[in-house]
# Entry
Amino acid sequence: MTEREDSLDPIIEILREPAGLRADLTDRVMSEVDRLPPPGIAALDRVRWWRRTWTIRLSPVRGLGLAAGLAVLALGVHLAGRRAGPATPPGAERAPEGQPIQFVLIAPEAQAVAVVGDFNDWSMSATPLARTLGDGVWHVTIPLGPGRYRYAFVVNGAIWRNDPEAPAAEDEFGRANSVVTVGGS
Amino acid sequence: MKEESDGALLRRVLSGEPRTYARLVDRYQARLGRYALRMLGNKDDAEDAVQDTFIRAYRSLGRCEGDGFGPWVFGILVNRCRTHATKRARTQGVIVRSEVALATASVASSEGRDALRDAIDWALKQLPAEQREAFLLKHVEDMSYEAMETVTGVRPATLRMRVFRARDELRKLLAETVRD
Amino acid sequence: MRLGMIPLWLLIAATPPMARGQEPRLLGRVPDPARAQVDAILDAARVRGLPVEPLVDRALEGATKGAPPAAIVAAVTRLRDELVVVSRAFGETASTAELTAGASALRAGAGADDLARLRRLRPGRPLTVAAAVMADLVAAGVAADTAAGAVLALAQNADDADYIAFRRNVQRDIELGASPAAALAVRIRSATDLSSTPGSETMPGTGASRKRKP
# Structure
């Protein structure tokens, strides 16, 4: 089997012609780059950079409601920036039977949040989340034996949300899933 | 003045000169653009993919070391093109005929050459995506199989097979248009 | 994936009448034309020795998501077919969790022979997390054969915690902007390279410190 044959050479020659993309491509990339934190800084610093940028861009003369909303957002960004720790549903480690797994969703606008999944018969009523101090952070902890469990959050009984902290999982019914895997036999 | 290496430019960007990134973008956009155009089949999608690739590369620039910016950013582009193709297949169905408008006003194109170009674009589109990908990286971008493994995450043996099949298929599809 | 399935009618005919029943959890949740069909699939699965739990879960998922009855039956059927393939690859002693994870890996594009190889490379050890990580990597954008190759490369030496950490690292790299191929290549290199010295983890394509795959 030869790697290169003459009959394809004219084809390849044509394929090597330049694409002729827009002349301002570099400018467009750089204008986006200007809005980003400098690369090479650690993940936590990146979160701080975003929060500082948010604060700088805001006018000081705003209503109390907006400030409260921002505080929640900042908390959300902070929690989203964390990659380890109890707030993240762990795809866990070697586990005894029924390891406690915590599910968290930030939904300040919600009146009710439930988690539905392979571990509770996909029931809307089996596993409601609780809210801490009215700040929009919903959570629940349930024991799960070893296995792979697909799930999703349902807000106000109707709005389906994925878990931003968890890997995505297959779905064939038109509503995407998240997944948590618990180790052990 | 001797041109700075990729590694030197990279170090400058990472040590506090973000605007220097523009020089890496200038250096690689033609190659990335060519691959994206051949892979995706039209300029708009190719431009989106290339822009998106450079932004993503910038955001995670700290993970790229030494003089490896080229293969590394190519790897990002290859993946963007894969994801893009999946999206398009879902929304638009299979594209039968290429819509490529080829480059460079400076090259005077005869009708025959245009027809050949169209035929090539069409033939490329008939290949399964992974064969097209391997063929372009090997024969248009002139990568070694080792570099291709880095860029695609696929074993060289599998890549060789895909290139072989792609060449075979292209020869068959273009049998009437290829001149000896 | 075409399988040599025993015809459903034969399995049901072979089931003692007492064993045929209604799965109570489906009552009131899965609409009636679908429910009877799903019950039949469950009966046949029991006869085959397949776990019915994942099939019930799939039907209930469809019901909660408001899927049309035909879609629910199709989904349960598809999962049942996958469980058959996985039980052949993993063996008769595979747990429900292993079979379910294996089915997800198949759905993601792994081959039955990949799963069989996974079983051979990890005799006596649970396969749930390995198979789950295979599926998760594909969901993150890694090509199916690459994901399978990565999981198999780790199969002999990794424990569950290693697999989870590997998947998390690849996921994080991707979220920070790396291509899935590059993220995986870096992580698999550092995970399988036994002779790596501290600080030698480099991006692919770099010069002197690039290591050969064992």
Q: What stands out?
A: Chain B touches chain A through 48 residues (CB under 8 Å). The radius of gyration of chain B is 18 Å.
